[in-house]
Amino acid sequence: MSSALDAPVAVPAAEADWRITAELVALGAIWGGSFLFMRVAAKDFGPLPMVATRLLFGSLILLPLLLRARRVLRVSHLWKMLALGALSAGIPFTLFAWGAERAPAGIGAIANSMTVLFSALVAFVGFGEKIGTRKAIALVVGFIGVVILASGRTAGANVAPAALAGAAASFCYGLAGNLIKKYLSDIPPTAVAAGCLLGATLLVAPLAVLTWPATPIPVRSWLAVITLGVVCTGLAYAFYFRLIQRIGAPRAATSTYLVPLFGVAWAWMFLGEALTPTMAVAGAVILGSVIFSQKSKA
Fold first, then answer.
1. Would you kindly state where each structural domain of the chain is located, as residue ranges?
2. If we measure between CA atoms, which residue out of 44, 33, 43, 86 comes closest to residue 258?
3. Cα separation of 32 and 55, whole Å?
4. Of 6-20, 68-82, 93-107, which range is least confident?
5. For burial by CB atoms within 10 Å, which of 82, 104, 202, 285 has the most?
């Protein structure tokens, strides 16, 4: 029996739109901050230990959501979550962490923008979905943006390896998104997020133990990784899937457009990492291609 407290509260359309916009911006800011925290901690932790710690704290935040869905889970779901956890979190997180050791935070944040385009490419090649002229053009332009990004140098250092690692991580995201849609669409999306993070944690943890740093890790780096896991992974994933349930996946995904902007801004504000002309051009090309691809269903 429901009470007045259970009844939904009517919110004016204008106020609801304002709140949703604010939430999308906040999510973009949080995910943009993940590249800042990776940059801070990468050299002290190393890629695998940093990723395992991030995944552990993120999994702990989302574990209640997985337990809540336990009645609809089957053994086959658990194996799929383990495999897709590697593809959706373990591998891409490690690639971004590896890149964070070698290049400014903005490089990974800009490369991350390719996720939307890779999702469309995988859906076309692997699942027979129509791609359309607009998205085909956007893909070509987006890849040109990655080439521009990889051709740059920061303080004389070659950023191509980090840019390519970021692009590969984005491809993993795009592939994982399509596979999750195909194989795990029969369980709540929040449970999928929780299960995949937990699966990735189990896979990465043994490798992290083997490569754990011999020297003590500074408190600053511990705080960065804990924030990365709790806020930028656990809470952000829960926040994101809550938005999907309220406004749908396409609109919720627009928060990713803001990730490179915030990623570069946070790195400049807190780490003093400058936005180079190459990064600016590449970011504009990639982000522009992503926005262009979403303008029409064609």
1. 23-211+232-293
2. 33
3. 17
4. 6-20
5. 104
Q: Which tokens belong to 273? A: 């990492």
pLDDT digits (tens, 9 = 90+) for 196-248: 999 999 999 999 999 999 999 999 999 999 999 999 999 998 888 878 778 77
Tokens representing residue 8 in the block: 């939904």
Question: pTM of the full predicted structure?
Answer: 0.88
* Under 8 Å between Cβ of 120 and 296: no
Per-residue pLDDT of 46-85, as tens digits, reads 999 999 999 999 999 999 989 999 999 999 999 999 999 9
Residue with tokens 């937990």: 198
Q: DSSP strand E in 7-81: where?
A: none
Residue tagged 């129509």 (tokens):
130
Tokens 């890629």, residue? 47
Q: How many helices (H) and strands (E) does the chain have?
A: 14, 2
